[in-house]
Design goal:
heterodimer; A: alpha/beta; Beta Polymerase, domain 2; 5-stranded mixed β-sheet; two-stranded parallel ribbon; B: 4-stranded antiparallel β-sheet; 3-stranded antiparallel β-sheet; 16 helices; globular
Chain lengths: 147, 372
Amino acid sequence: MAAQLTAKFPEVKVDWMKERRLKVSTSAMHVKEVGLFARSTLGFDHISTVSGVDWIAKNELEVVYFVGSTTPGQEDFILAISERIARDNPVVPTMVEVWKGAEYHERETHEMFGINFQGHPDQSHLFLPEDWNELPPLRKDYVSPGR
Amino acid sequence: MTLEAEYSPDADRIMSVSLGPQHPGAGHFRIKLWLDGDYVVRSEPDAGYVHRGEEKMSEYRNYIQNVPHLERPVILDSSNILFAYALGVDELMNNKVPQRAQYLRVIMSEANRIISHMYFLAIQGLFLGHTTMITWCMGDRDFWIDLAERIGGARVTFAYIIPGGVRNDIPPSAIEKGLNTCDWFDKRMDEYEKIFFRNPMVHQRSDGIGVLSREDAIAYGATGTVARASGVSVDVRKDEPYSAYEDFEFKTPVMTQGDVYARAYVALLDMRESVKIIRQALKKLPQGPVRLKLGPQPRVPAGEVYSRTEAARGEMSYYIISDGSPRPYRLKIGVPSAKNLRVLPLLLRNVHVADIPPIYWGLNYWPVEADR
């Protein structure tokens, strides 16, 4: 699997979080191609979770898509597709066209980290109040009240 | 596309209505509905009324302090949400959890699955107009809560499955009580089949209602009972056996109709498997210690982990990043209710208003779990 990915996309970096957990680090430019390849060729047919990470010391934001598979023999495999972008202008392409299930996960990542998913059908607030106008709460420089 | 253009030549016919957030069935959750007479033409879920920032809170507390508040989102299924967390932290710390603790984790997790499914079936019975089901299920659920109390010492939130094992050993009386409860419950489930699942009225109200196709279930990332009722055989216990699940014989129940009836019936079949697992675990329970001594502020090496378990509602996953400090750098909870939420607007389309409650509840959606 790792060899297939690096053969197709020489620019990606792959490392194993552990057995059957492969993390693929790519850029916002290539993430959609990697996603399409993972879905159509490698058989990762559904999204499990999307997570944002704020690397404030490096001035970067990370988006990780955890995708799973229902292909027999591959159900235990989780592929993590990760991309990093600059913190000041976090724009990444949406993956809704690759996995429809990404829609609400990306909406959540948008409101919690302030990451803009280009091409997303609806980025209104899902969990936060409509009138929330402070920093996105899961960014490291947002401090919870009382802390 | 505008709503008018999509649905009706006559825009005045469409009425928008809010269901919730104070609706007794919807819980702390709102569904925006667009109605044409008695028909729902479009719907949009509006979550977040009980969002309390569990993920942010976790970044302020150490790995042990996180245990009690992380189980709060799913009080019906509190062991299973902690199970995935404990697995994740154990993996980061490279803990060798004792075998007896693994078995006790499985027993508690399966008991919690039954407690959660019983609540689900009770309310589904209510929504389908079957009063006996809610009284029976709520009553019988209490016997499982009694067993869980004997094991974990509390009735709702147990904080039982913790990093390094389980919080305490069980009293010897719990084994006999557990086996008796299993035997009794097998007979009770036969009666549920007779009174509810073979009831023509229940069939009439739920067959072919809210059908989710297999393709959509996969594409939209449905999980748990919702996916299994649509013919997708997903079960983390089988796909990626964790803890002691490899030691037990059980099946993953799958149905193909994908309607409200199938989603309820899969829950019953799930409980039958849970009883089998609990019985085997109680009979084979090994001797030995039940927890590792981790101390109040354990050292967790830097690293990242993605752990998952099969909770009552589906795949529960944690993404934990540790930077070597006493607190998690990032903790993401991937809850099954949030994964199934995207399915709701697909199902609430071209259905009668009267079918909204069973379709909504059939997803086994728990607002507090989804919001976190």
